[in-house]
Amino acid sequence: MSEPFRVVGGPLVDRAAPVEFRFNGRSLRGLQGDTLASALLANGVHLVARSWKYHRPRGVMAAGVEEPNALVQLGEGAHTIPNARATEVELYEGLAARSVNCFPGPERDWMALAGLASGLLQTSMQVGGAVVLAVVTAVIDARGADHAISAGTLAAYRPALGVIAGVAVLGPPMGVEGLLWANAVANGIGTAWLMTAALAAKKKSAKSPRLPETDTFLKPT
Asked: Is beta strand 57-58 parallel, antiparallel or unpaired with respect to 81-85?
């Protein structure tokens, strides 16, 4: 598999030693000496995860321990490492990683609806203030010399006022409903994942041979 974004040169990787790995179920190739982050970038993978609260897209931003965005889940099944920085993970043959804070994947994340709902909620609050300002402006413009309000002037403002008022009224309940729905889905996915992981761990422990009781890690303390 080609690496379209691999730079020429670089003394930290061995170009004669390719390494196969998987990210979000997709088979990719890196080089010995790569970090997971550098291998993903070399393969053109820029969307690595989603933010925790609003599920906004996140990619590699730094090159070391200071990386705030490229957090991944290492391994598969019940024995995984959560929230590992891709910039600190050395690439090895057979490495498996996946994005965090997204379902079913970072490209199409259902939880991103929470961000849209929060944006709609905030916008509707701002529009509420615009409604008051628009009404006051309409009343002032409609006053003639005798301080009487012109029905024609008010009628000209009516469509715009209707749209603004509709957004202001419908925005908050729609935003709150979207946030509640996203939270419920996230909780349901989390519960299902924990149950699946627990069952997988139970099956694996049942099939795995037990260590002898003389083992250091099994001695009573």
From this structure: unpaired
10 Å CB burial of residue 71 (0-12, 13-18, 19+) is buried
Question: Same domain for 70 and 120?
Answer: no
Q: Do residues 49 and 99 lie in contact, with contact meaning Cβ atoms separated by under 8 Å? A: yes
**Local structure of residue 69 (DSSP, 8 states):** S
Number of domains in the chain: 2
Full domain range(s) for residue 59: 14-99
Residues 151 and 87 in one domain: no
Within a domain: 213: no
Pairing of strands 95-99, 14-23: parallel
- pLDDT of the chain, 221 residues: tens digit per residue: 567 788 877 788 888 999 999 999 999 999 999 999 999 999 999 999 888 877 888 899 998 899 999 999 998 877 789 899 999 999 999 999 999 888 778 887 776 666 666 666 666 666 666 766 766 776 666 555 455 555 665 666 667 667 766 766 666 666 566 656 655 555 555 556 556 666 766 666 655 555 444 444 344 44
* Tally of CB atoms within 10 A around 120: 20
